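Allow me, if you will, to draw on your knowledge of protein folds for a short while. Thank you for your consideration; the sequence and its tokens are set out here:
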Amino acid sequence: MNLCDVKTIKQLMAMFSLNFRKEFGQNFLTNISVVEDIADNCCDDSETTILEIGPGVGSLTRELAARYKHVVAIEIDHGLIPVLKYTLDEFKNVTVINEDVMKLDLGEVLAPYFESGKVSVCANLPYYITTPILMKLLESGLPFEYITIMIQSEVADRLCTAPGSKDCGAITAVLNYYGAPEKLFKVGAHNFIPAPKVDSSVVRIKLHKDKPCKPHDEATLFRTIRAAFEQRRKTLPNALSAVFGELTKEELTAAVTECGHPENIRGEKLSTEQFTALSDVLYEKIQNKQ
């Protein structure tokens, strides 16, 4: 069964009286080579369990199930559940869960799979909710090996860019705290039905087993990063002052210069390691005032 064949996809949708649901960001892949490449590159151990988010009609799910130990597929659209039961019937190593991944307790769902081996994530994420899903995965604290996602190319550039580039944003710094992102390949809009208005890219993130950055206080680190990019055109001390109201402008400027930066530097120039060092100085200054 070639679930990347446009005719087959349309027949399935008609068979189950379904339409493509824009509110769920449903754009199904029509290029089997792309699906195979994603499945091949999402992790490096066939004994891994794969968490798939948004399986659609099951094109990627089938390829994952053929390569890896188990697939846990989370699908929000209840209308696609009978489709998946039909298209995945031959695979006994697939578990389909009809839930909103943003409301799901991933720790509870995946606990038995972590107990028995490695777990990685592989997903074609809807554009409208890419960042919230990615942050849920990262902030879950679950020991994923890899997170491989197909997302809007513009977002992929932002995730994988270097500090100081025009594409660098808060998500760049936060992501590098959790893992090492790598852009694998681009996927043109013509490879989907319905075709989106922009191209996509596949990004693989290798999660840090032992984070290279270890802040005194994680919340202060994320607060520092958020402040730096909320008003990115301002100098770093000025940007920080909008968020760190408990410190004076002079104290914020001192924190920046104590870390070896000129006081007129902008936050986008800092690496995750440099943000961590700055957040430690800020944390200490806040603690000293209490």
Notes: Residues 111 and 186 are 33 Å apart (CA to CA). The longest strand covers residues 179-187.
